[in-house]
Amino acid sequence: QVQLVESGGGLVQAGGSLRLSCAASGRTFSSYAMGWFRQGSGKEREFVAAISWSGGMRYYADSVKGRFTISRDNAKNTVYLQMNSLKPEDTAVYYCAARSVAVVSTNSYQYDYWGQGTQVTVSS
Length: 124
What we know:
By secondary structure, the chain is mainly β. The protein has strands spanning 4-7, 10-13, 18-24, 33-39, 46-51, 58-60, 68-73, 78-83, 92-99, 113-114, 118-123. The protein is built from no helices and eleven strands.
């Protein structure tokens, strides 16, 4: 079993930055692919970014490419999402997810564990 706890959300003005963190329990964290997803009010959950177990492969949604960076520190059992140049349309609850295989996926149904989410609000 893996438990995920997100932090770092908050209120920021458009153009600002936030860094989300996701702390994971479990000794096998380093073998898991990790992802970030988000869900805006009245919208479906959507893929944001994903990273392979080693960090060697990273994928981003087109809407965040060039602005967001996903990274991980396996020694700290933590994955990060650095968000720059934030826009009001980035407002959502952001979820961290773990996939119990090393291969990256952009499909939320292929993730096995989820955090409780952290709210990000970008004001215009």
